[in-house]
Amino acid sequence: LLPGCELTASTKSYTFQVDEEDDSDHILALSVVCLTDGAKDECNVVEVVGRNHENQEIAVPVANLKLSCQPLLSLDNFKLQPPVTFRLAVGSGPVHLTGWHRIMHREDASFEEDDDLSEEDEEELSPIMPAKK
């Protein structure tokens, strides 16, 4: 689980990264972005900064929050590939971000399952009979 982070006027960004030597696959999912106690009634734009398929840095706005009309946004587990930076591009916050982090360990490449089943191993399926009227 990602404990969450808070973006403010003094802390405009937060970077989530994993150990480069880690041989696991990591998924970070952003669930909720919301204004917290002390927020002003101003636009607060949160951007996600990451890398695209060509390994170029790209910034994408994911939330535009305002206390009087939209103080909270559910992002339905918006999945990201670490490393990723969350940045308060506009506004003074405080904006709180929550989500989760999943680690998927890669299987040993030398171990492969045999997908070819012999006819003896396959179960016989009974034929489908028409319904009685």
UniProtKB/TrEMBL annotation:
Places the protein is found: Nucleus, Nucleolus
Keywords: Acetylation, Chaperone, Methylation, Nucleus, Phosphoprotein
Principal location: nucleus
GO terms for cellular component: cytoplasm; nucleolus; nucleoplasm
GO BP terms in the entry: chromatin remodeling
Record InterPro entries: Nucleoplasmin, Nucleoplasmin_core_dom, Nucleoplasmin_core_dom_sf
Region forming the signal peptide: none
Superkingdom in the source lineage: Eukaryota
Region entry Disordered, spans: 110-133
Acidic residues bias: start-end ranges: 110-125
Domain Nucleoplasmin core intervals: 4-102
GO molecular function, one term: chromatin binding
UniProt-listed Gene3D superfamilies: Nucleoplasmin core domain
Quaternary structure and partners: Interacts with NPM (via N-terminus). Forms a pentamer with NPM at a ratio 4:1 (NPM3/NPM). Two pentamers form a decamer.
Family affiliation: Belongs to the nucleoplasmin family.
PANTHER family reported for this sequence: NUCLEOPLASMIN, NUCLEOPLASMIN-3
Function recorded in the entry: Plays a role in the regulation of diverse cellular processes such as ribosome biogenesis, chromatin remodeling or protein chaperoning. Modulates the histone chaperone function and the RNA-binding activity of nucleolar phosphoprotein B23/NPM. Efficiently mediates chromatin remodeling when included in a pentamer containing NPM3 and NPM.
Protein name stated in the entry: Nucleoplasmin-3
Gene: Npm3
